[in-house]
């Protein structure tokens, strides 16, 4: 087990990312993308797992197209991806223009101003373009594009982003039709529409390049991916104290759990400051050997109690794995699979197997 960026002092909680699972998820997504190339969204520090480490492993798996949100992220990732292509999804603020022109990463132009600025300052360098086909978040409208706004630009990838691909929603088909229409009017080397969930919608949505993020990191965006996507992130915390409580005793802030019988508890060194948010109060769980250990009471800032009657051996200093399969943890906590990963805090010792 290779440990990267080991902290000088001991950390009582750790986040272990599984390199083989990451690569296997990318390969499944690449197969599901058919003849389209399969890229990888490594924005937001690869959804919290570590952008450089994730990008290196994805490159080794064969990925040659990466996506980040900002230029700070681009500068971090570029050295890890050799000759691969990197797109910066937010385009650029005027403060970023010079570094964008000097960079081997491409800006994704989203606004009329970005297009004009790139035309003036971009020295004919390649760019990507985002068309908004209905999410109403980022991108040029069909009307923006109709007047020849993009003529003469060296567009590598023309892209759009799906709003509801994780559901069977009529907007999916409407966005597909609008994207095809835009693709017929704008000259670009490649077309790209699908995120993780969009890949599951089938070949019509794949075009030349797909852009999965969540499913690389163990998220299951739609039923089609269930059973094919492996868990990547595992979180473990050490037991700080074991204690016995009696019938009628309460646990934690605001006494939201009251024991009906004598119980054994283990108090874990993890809390909402670590991204194990309060939604797991009285609903999360840990696994110890084969035994389930439910979270009891409220998750507090740095500590969480679990019931360990079924694990008589678990004691101070033992490492306990919280259940963190993303679809299950999303149901337990009420958080989205995206939030579960991206809120994990800074106190973990992060390592890759
Ligand atoms: C984040 C993002 C993706 C990846 O989406 P997932 O749902 O995580 O697969 C793809 N494209 C764009 C434009 C994004 O912002």
From TrEMBL:
GO terms for molecular function: alanine racemase activity; pyridoxal phosphate binding. Belongs to the alanine racemase family. InterPro entries: Ala_racemase, Ala_racemase/Decarboxylase_C, Ala_racemase_C, Ala_racemase_N, Ala_racemase_pyridoxalP-BS, PLP-binding_barrel. The keyword Oxidoreductase does not apply. Pathway: Amino-acid biosynthesis; D-alanine biosynthesis; D-alanine from L-alanine: step 1/1. Keywords: Isomerase, Pyridoxal phosphate. Its EC number is 5.1.1.1. Catalyzes the interconversion of L-alanine and D-alanine. May also act on other amino acids. The active site is at 43 (proton acceptor), 253 (proton acceptor). Substrate binds at residues 137, 301. Pfam families: Ala_racemase_C (PF00842), Ala_racemase_N (PF01168). Residues 232-353 form the Alanine racemase C-terminal domain. SMART domains: Ala_racemase_C. The modification N6-(pyridoxal phosphate)lysine is found at residue 43. Its cofactor is pyridoxal 5'-phosphate. This is Alanine racemase. It catalyses: L-alanine = D-alanine. It comes from the Bacteria. It is an enzyme of class 5 (isomerase). GO terms for cellular component: cytosol. GO terms for biological process: D-alanine biosynthetic process.
